[in-house]
């Protein structure tokens, strides 16, 4: 199925993630209540998709526990019609079985899917923090230097089968490097992925592509060659201080945008974002100034050929 031409920009909000830790920002959502409130407020501010991880309510460490997700996801669905995009990546410390436990239970409209194994680290950030709120944080951040995020071809094939083929879930294909586009093309050519594709191009993570505008152009033109421009939608994620400039560039190039405290803790230079909604509101103002219209959740569903919220198992 070809991608539908889009005159509307989908805003995805990644609420909390599994990279940042409580000591990095007092505003990072940690408890179920905080994650729910941030997600709902982001949706009310204009996010058509909310991308969700879970945190241990006691100390904020990343968790894949379905019981914790159950304290978050149903409450968001009760309060908003935003597309619920559940992580299949979790964190570098989780097994594939742990990462898939809740997605297989929920059978969501959308999941993230990292398109390769990679070094993925923010360990230099540990040097900037003088006081840690929880004992787990410092070894967690420093330990990233000697860890990889694993998603082998076999892992990806398994996820495509049990979530895609069997559960009707579609994917935000996370591409942190040029080679990830070729990995995606491999699965498309093998008939294991059907369009329309939703490619999340990610820049600025240590271990992946640098946040250079030229790299965004390279990813866009490479995706055109591999898939044909009419066969995919793309979105841009800029990590940290690169968030707003790169996602704005992506929107100008015809793409969609992703913001949220998972990707950047800041609203502007030197100023922490007090909520995910702050970032959504900022990018929406920028899009408005560029005469670009944001997509509603149902418009996002139509563009990405999602199965609809009525077909998830809550």
TrEMBL record:
Its cofactor is Zn(2+). GO terms for molecular function: 3-keto-5-aminohexanoate cleavage activity; metal ion binding. The keyword Manganese does not apply. It holds the Pfam family BKACE. Keywords: Metal-binding, Transferase, Zinc. This is 3-keto-5-aminohexanoate cleavage protein. It comes from Pollutimonas thiosulfatoxidans.
């Amino acid at each position: 199925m070809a991608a539908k031409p889009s005159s509307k920009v989908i805003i995805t909000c990644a609420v909390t993630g599994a990279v940042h830790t409580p000591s990095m920002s007092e505003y990072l959502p940690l408890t179920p209540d905080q994650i729910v409130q941030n997600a709902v407020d982001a949706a009310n501010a204009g996010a058509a998709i909310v991308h969700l991880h879970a945190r241990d309510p006691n100390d904020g460490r990343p968790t894949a526990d379905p019981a914790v997700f159950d304290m978050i996801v149903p409450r968001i669905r009760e309060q908003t019609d935003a597309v619920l995009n559940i992580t299949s990546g979790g964190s570098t410390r989780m097994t594939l079985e742990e990462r898939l436990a809740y997605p297989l239970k929920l059978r969501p409209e959308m999941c993230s899917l990292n398109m390769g194994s990679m070094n993925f680290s923010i360990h230099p950030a540990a040097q900037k923090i003088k006081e840690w709120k929880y004992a787990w944080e410092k070894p967690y951040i420093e330990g990233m230097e000697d860890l990889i995020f694993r998603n082998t071809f076999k892992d990806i094939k398994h996820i495509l089968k049990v979530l895609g083929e069997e559960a009707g879930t579609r994917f935000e294909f996370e591409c942190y490097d040029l080679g990830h586009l070729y990995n995606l093309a491999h699965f498309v050519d093998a008939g294991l992925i059907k369009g329309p594709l939703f490619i999340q191009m990610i820049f600025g993570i240590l271990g992946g592509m640098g946040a250079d505008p030229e790299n965004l152009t390279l990813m866009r033109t490479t995706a055109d060659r591999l898939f044909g421009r009419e066969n995919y939608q793309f979105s841009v994620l800029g990590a940290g201080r690169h968030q707003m400039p790169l996602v704005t560039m992506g929107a100008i190039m015809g793409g969609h945008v992703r913001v949220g405290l998972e990707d950047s803790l800041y609203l502007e230079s030197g100023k922490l974002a007090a909520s995910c909604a702050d970032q959504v509101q900022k990018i929406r103002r920028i899009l408005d100034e560029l005469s670009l219209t944001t997509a509603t959740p149902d418009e996002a569903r139509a563009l990405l050929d999602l199965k609809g919220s009525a077909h998830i198992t809550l």
